[in-house]
Amino acid sequence: MADHIVVDPEFGAKLIQSPEVLALMTVLGHEVKLVSEATAPVERGDFRSSFRVIIRVKRGGAVVRVFSFDPGGGAAKIELGTKYTPAHRTMTKALAYVARRRT
């Protein structure tokens, strides 16, 4: 069994700009957001309620971003950890979970 496929560049460019790919990426982005919210550590709930999904269509194709808009700046500390607290990696784990479910 082949471990990779070769796609015609013209076909690939059309594919990543298709409404179907945009729809799939949108669903995946929202799944990552939901898993992040479900697994985020909660003290006050600011981090858990700060996840956002932004969808853009650029010339190259669909771009979906999942991020935490935590005005207190706690997102980086929770995701990456600090000198005093270990990294929770909420979004990293959520992305990995969604990717595993889809393969």
UniProtKB/TrEMBL annotation:
This is Uncharacterized protein. It comes from Longispora fulva.
